[in-house]
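Hi all, long-time lurker, first post. I run a small reading group and we've been trying to get comfortable going from sequence to structure in the token notation. Rather than ask abstract questions, I figured I'd post a concrete chain and ask someone more experienced to write out its structure so we can walk through it together at our next meeting. Sequence below, copied exactly:
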Amino acid sequence: MKTLLTVCLFLLASQLFSQSDSTFLKPMASTEIYFDFAKADLDSTAVKSLDSLFRNLEDGFFCTITAHTDSIGSYAANLKLSEKRARAVAGFAKKKGINPDHIQFSYFGEAKPKTRNDTEEHRRMNRRATVELKRPVPATTLNGVVKDPETDQGVAAAVIVHGKFFRDSVRSDSSGIFSARVPLGEVVGVDVYAEGFFMESTMLRALPGKMKPVELKLRPAIPGEKVNIPNLYFVGNKAILLKKSEPELPKILRFMKVNPGLKIQIAGHVNFPNRPPVSKNTFEYRLSVDRAKLVYDYLIANGISPDRLEYQGYGNWEMLYPNAIREADQAKNRRVEIRVLK
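-- Answer (accepted) --
Happy to help. Here is the structure in token form:
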């Protein structure tokens, strides 16, 4: 099995086109097609779907293809079958005018099912190929520095640079300096993690010309200190995250993994302005507890020891905006904080 996987990885690596440092590939359109059992031929439905996709074709476009099978048959046979499916789609793309050097295909056999293989309908959904058209986007360089605001010294840190269609990881050096290539004109997120410090994030747009270096300041994560989890907001009167806040949970998980010796309290808050502090037998207090527990449960489910965590609700006792009227201020009252215990 190890030999087979090694050969598979070699084949995949040999088929990948390289992405130049001067460009990124931005997804523009995609489709998913399905195959009959044990077949690699494109049926009429698949041809119609691909014809529709390639009507969007422009000069210089790239095409990526990933192909799969159901789980019936041997691993080796399914891997070979998925390769045939990928090559069939690649051949169709060439006929439609895609430069052969701009076609990437990879195949995984039964290794990456879309759903279970327990019914014929589910198996049909796994006998698939995903096809994407991508357009080259110019790149530019993002420079930055990570600092400890108390000492103004640079911090060596992990820096995650990401956007809608790309993600990269770099490290700042001992002076805190880092650089990364990013797609021009796109909104870019920068997340920074270092042991002994709270995480920090920022968003910016990659503009043409020389961009001003971004400066990120990491506060030391020491006992007694607390930090608001950025962009972690909730639906009103519910312990349900806003959709836009769901990507923040993995950031908290990474923070805990980067700081393996840290014990924290997860503190939940509600928006209940222009009112006296609520008591512990109220809906508002219980809601603040539930919001903290949502984060607690996520961390436990993803491998963080319960010995390192506790959660606590604070009702409306510590609102950032006690007299909030604007929705933006009310949203910031519905928050969760990290408090370092030891």
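A couple of things your group might point at:
The chain is about 25% helix and 30% strand.
The longest helix spans residues 75-95.
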